[in-house]
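[recover] target loaded
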């Protein structure tokens, strides 16, 4: 199966899980308050947002009052609740008098819970997924002390702002992280007045980050600093067999190429990029004693087909959790994810980060899954997307859950219900905004691909 199909398959499975459970949140709370649910669809059975265009379902079955189905347009889903105006209904479809089973006849607090049901489920789902990951896989953490044995690799941008190759990180914003992932925490890196302390030639240097640091960090599309590790083969990739065909083995250490010494993995990566589409001679240390030469073809992307081993390059800490221990770790990771996303949104809305550099549509998300099926990464990314969906759905845009919630809160505060006519007009404006954001995200993905 090609890499593109694997990316698309992972995206489709992830969206199916997330959309199903998000809509189930609306469905189960509506049922709880004895509202009639007319439709429960995974994906749209029409060309969103035009409810009567290309209207057909891949599958549908009516059970009781509810029609369950799978639509053909895989960018969302919906629950159609009697007496509720949304993207699938029109005001004139509603009977003149509210019926007891309708959404509009229920108290505001019940309607608010129904509206927020999907968001709540997304947040719970994210925590459950993160808890499961912690329990099943644990965590492999790279101690900063290990990185500091040889110092960091500084990108061109990092050198612009004062870092040098081989610097040893002492602190960030006055904090002394124990592990590398704590150092690279995005919430920390997005802090205002950010500074690092590094050890260089036995002296401590303070490096102040510029005001455009966060924006540049996102534009760079790669870590501005990274750890320097020796290149030891962890596994050979089935998608690209060049390295395997040339005779490279698991646990081989690459120490040079074309008679040039290559001490660290980032040096080897740069070398491959400079030799795309050519054949190179690898110098390999095998069994920590024998030197072997291998002729390997480099593909057009600068790859030969292996994954390097972090755990063999460094002494890492592997942390295992019992189920009871995994629960608070899952909650902590869920909280951190939400906090990071809110910080990122704040940066976008205040203009400190460009939306085109930080927003991704379905193409970008599919690419994030990668061209090989890795269940650990699949669930990690699905948990992240679940949290992001919860946050995005809470934006106060009519048509999103947050937009409906604003109208209900207004009613609860003022005692005055927003009229169906105003709701319908607001929904029309909201759908235009949602479509513009959708087209922007997809167009941005395409632009990035060609760029």
């Amino acid at each position: 199966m090609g890499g593109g199909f694997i990316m698309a398959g992972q995206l489709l499975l992830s969206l199916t899980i997330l959309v199903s459970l998000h809509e189930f949140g609306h469905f189960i709370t509506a049922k709880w308050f004895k509202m009639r649910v007319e439709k429960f669809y995974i994906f749209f059975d029409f060309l969103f947002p035009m409810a009567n265009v290309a209207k057909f379902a891949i599958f549908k079955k009516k059970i009781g009052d509810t029609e369950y189905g799978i639509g053909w347009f895989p960018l969302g889903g919906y629950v159609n609740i009697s007496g509720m105006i949304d993207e699938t209904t029109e005001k004139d479809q509603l009977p003149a008098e509210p019926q007891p089973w309708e959404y509009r006849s229920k108290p505001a607090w019940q309607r608010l819970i129904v509206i927020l049901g999907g968001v709540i489920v997304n947040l719970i789902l994210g925590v459950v997924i993160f808890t499961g990951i912690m329990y099943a896989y644990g965590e492999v953490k790279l101690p900063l002390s290990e990185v500091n044995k040889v110092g960091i690799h500084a990108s061109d941008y990092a050198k612009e702002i004062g870092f040098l190759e081989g610097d040893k990180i002492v602190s960030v914003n006055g904090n002394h992280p124990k592990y590398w992932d704590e150092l690279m925490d995005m919430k920390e890196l997005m802090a205002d007045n950010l500074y690092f302390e590094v050890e260089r030639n036995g002296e401590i240097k303070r490096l102040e980050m510029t005001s455009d640091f966060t924006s540049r960090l996102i534009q760079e599309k790669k870590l501005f600093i990274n750890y320097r590790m020796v290149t030891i083969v962890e596994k050979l990739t089935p998608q690209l067999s060049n390295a395997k065909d040339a005779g490279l083995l698991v646990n081989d250490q690459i120490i040079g190429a074309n008679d040039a010494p290559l001490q660290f993995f980032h040096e080897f990566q740069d070398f491959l990029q400079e030799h795309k589409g050519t054949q190179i001679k690898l110098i390999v240390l095998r069994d920590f004693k024998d030197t072997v030469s291998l002729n390997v073809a480099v593909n057009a992307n600068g790859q030969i087909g292996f994954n390097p081993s972090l755990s063999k390059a460094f002494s890492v800490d592997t942390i295992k959790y019992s189920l009871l221990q995994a629960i608070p770790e899952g909650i902590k990771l869920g909280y951190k994810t939400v906090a990071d996303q809110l910080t990122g949104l704040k940066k976008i809305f205040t203009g400190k980060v460009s939306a085109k550099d930080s927003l991704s549509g379905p193409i970008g998300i599919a690419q994030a899954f990668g061209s090989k099926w890795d269940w650990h990464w699949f669930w990690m990314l699905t948990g992240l997307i679940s949290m992001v969906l919860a946050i995005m759905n809470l934006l106060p845009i009519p048509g999103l859950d947050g937009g409906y919630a604003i109208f209900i809160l207004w009613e609860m505060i003022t005692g005055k219900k927003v009229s169906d006519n105003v709701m319908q007009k607001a929904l029309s404006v909201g759908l235009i905004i949602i479509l513009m954001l959708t087209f922007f995200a997809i167009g941005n993905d395409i632009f990035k691909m060609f760029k």
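[recover] notes: The CA atoms of residues 341 and 388 lie 7 Å apart.
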